[in-house]
Design a protein that fits this description.
The chain is built from three helices and ten strands, in the order αββαβββαβββββ. The protein is of the alpha+beta class and 201 residues long. The strands form three sheets. A six-stranded mixed β-sheet has the order 3-4-5-6-7-8, sandwiched between helices. It has a two-stranded antiparallel sheet with strand order 1-2.
Amino acid sequence: MPRAVTETPVPAAAPQPPRKRWTRAECAVLDAAGLFDQERVELIDGELISQMGKKRPHVNAATLLLGWLIRVFGERFVNSHAPIDVAPEDNPMNEPVPDMIVLKRSYSGFHSATPQPADLQLVVEVADSTLTFDLTVKAALYARAGIVEYWLLDVSSRRLIVHRDRQDWRYRSIVAFGEDESAAPLAAPDSPFRVAEAFWD
């Protein structure tokens, strides 16, 4: 006699449908055709990651931190949502777009070239729902690229996680600064950022 199925049986190692992995060259063709006009995406490990739909606390914190970076480094050295190159072995399948970057020289020197890891003093991501992804996948990508300092502003926990001391393709120093604490970038050691400045309520 037939019986109702209340749970869908899933094998222990359920096969996954094949997924298309994209390259930067393919994404450039799609972009030129206008397919990304309505949505901002970044390419990570061959997958297109949407950067849309950020919540208001994320937007507010990113705006405040961006303003601080511009005051410290100058507007000609700070970009928001600009694609960067990573390690040569990662470049074909990756084109991350950090929330902010601080350049070693004015962005006027990058008319058509994408900034290389050696051009960067600091890379910043602002995370709420993407925290685990940014702490693992993004951190590993930036470490392999040789980016000297990576800041991750954790909006939900109101803290700043600072990654430094890249060795053996990873960051060996990862320190979380709470809302009542301050951290200064390696490139501006006399300019501490108070984490609470990103969370004005």
